[in-house]
Amino acid sequence: MLYNLEVSEKVPSFAAFALYDAPTWLFGILTSALHMVWVKTVGGKLETRYRYSAQLCYNTFPFPKISDEKKEKIKEAAEEVLITREYYPEKTLAELYDPDKMPQDLREAHAKLDDIVESCYPGYPFASDEARLECLFKLYEKMTAKK
To answer: What is the CA radius of gyration of the chain?
Structure first.
């Protein structure tokens, strides 16, 4: 969850994670398909639901240093996703993200966001999730290499 609220206004349960006052571009990265490929690979599952872990998913996600201009582009695309969601106040997130029923404009907003996030990585554009993972694991190796 990302909240731009005072800590006293919202308290997540022990099973949830919150980033208070997080920048919108970070929301864009965390909701990107690239990050979800990472989560599906390194995170755990409880039944069919993904278990997001700060230690396994968030802290280990390799993300290259990017310019303020690139952060702004990610922020704008992430805001477009949020604005598009607001067009459907009667729908829950589960309904909005049902793969068979996802509104086309929301699908397009996410595709634009995904493209901008992926353009931060070497090897872009990626042909498959396997290519995405290959890039991510190479960056992870560099990130964790002893200096």
So the answer is: 16
